[in-house]
Write a structure and sequence with these properties.
Layout lengths: L1 H20 L10 E5 L2 E5 L3 E9 L5 E2 L4 E5 L3 E6 L2 E6 L3 E9 L5 E9 L5 E7 L2 E5 L3 E10 L4 E2 L4 E5 L3 E6 L2 E6 L3 E9 L6 E9 L6 E7 L2 E4 L4 E10 L6 E3 L4 E4 L3 E5 L2 E5 L4 E9 L2 E9 L3
Parallel strand pairs: 2-9, 11-18, 20-27
Antiparallel strand pairs: 1-3, 3-4, 3-7, 5-8, 6-7, 8-9, 10-12, 12-13, 12-16, 14-17, 15-16, 17-18, 19-21, 21-22, 21-25, 23-26, 24-25, 26-27
Length: 297
């Protein structure tokens, strides 16, 4: 039984050699090479397979002696004798060539590669990180990016947060109002898609726990005509929260002249006389001031 299998294997091997050699049995040397297909179109990332076929002077199939594959660019090659795979990595017009080793006999095919159409691949939320006090609000903006780094419109942005505040959305803009202390995130994605998504971090603190290091009055400079009124407001600059301004209450207001009407953290000032006046807000040992010029014109 084993003898029969051995003879059968030998017979098959002989037939295979004969069949492969038959097309070239009466062919002359290869003088021309053609590639199939002769031209292809695709996009970046596409793979194309090319076959090199040799011909003799009479147009008969001829064996290509040691085929050598090359390309003008735009992709990578994976050759295997007279077959070669080309994977496009760059948009443009390129060629792939098969050359018989040691000769100038070659065949060439054209490759046209288009870029992949832009798609949403990334979402950037700005600012990327903020520190807030409870009661404060922050606007966030989401910008979509395609695979080439260009701006891409986010269709129906969906905003969400891990907590600590409320959201008021309008397209790619979202207002976050802090309602609790802690560390949270705000996220934007496109409706119907889980990815990509953009995220920013939010740290919130209790206003009463943030030490005030300075009092700032707004506006810091005002120009009035006699009889006109200007409203000033006092803010506390906090430490450790990137200079967050906190509206103050219980402020003591003073002026170097004119008339003051204080209301907690705000104060109305007016004067019927020309001159320069100083407005002062005090809270404990902290002081803040603003200047007022009362002019006829």
């Amino acid at each position: 039984m084993s003898g029969r299998l051995t003879r059968l294997a030998v017979l098959l091997a002989v037939m295979t050699v004969w069949l492969c050699a038959a097309p070239y049995a009466h062919a002359g040397p290869c003088v021309r090479i053609e590639l199939s297909p002769s031209a292809v179109n695709g996009v970046v990332g596409a793979q194309h397979n090319f076959v090199a076929r040799g011909f003799d002077a009479s147009g008969n199939d001829a064996s290509i002696n040691n085929p050598r594959w090359s390309t003008s660019g735009g992709g990578t090659l994976d050759p295997l004798s007279d077959i070669c795979s080309y994977t496009a990595t760059q948009a443009g017009d390129f060629t792939i060539t098969c050359t018989q080793q040691g000769t100038t006999i070659r065949g060439t095919a054209n490759i046209h590669t288009d870029p992949v159409s832009p798609v949403l691949t990334n979402i950037v939320v700005t600012p990327t990180s903020v520190n807030l006090l409870v009661g404060q609000s922050q606007l966030f903006t989401a910008t979509g990016k395609d695979q080439y780094g260009g701006d891409f419109t986010i269709s129906s942005p969906v905003w969400s947060t891990s907590g600590g505040g409320t959201l008021l959305t309008s397209g790619n803009i979202c207002a976050y109002r802090a309602t609790a202390t802690g560390d949270f995130t705000i996220t934007c994605r496109q409706q119907g898609l889980t990815l990509p998504q953009g995220t920013a971090t939010i740290h919130t603190a209790d206003a009463s726990a943030a030490p005030i290091v300075r009092i700032i009055i707004t506006p810091s400079l005002a120009r009035l005509r006699p009889g006109q009124t200007q409203t000033f407001q006092a803010f506390g600059l906090t430490r450790g929260l990137r200079g967050t301004l906190v509206p103050l209450t219980g402020v003591q207001w003073r002026a170097s002249g004119g008339t003051l009407t204080p209301t907690g953290g705000t104060c109305d000032f007016s004067s019927t006389r020309r001159g320069m006046y100083t407005i002062t807000a005090a809270l404990g040992r902290l002081r803040g001031s603003a200047l007022v010029f009362v002019l006829w014109r």
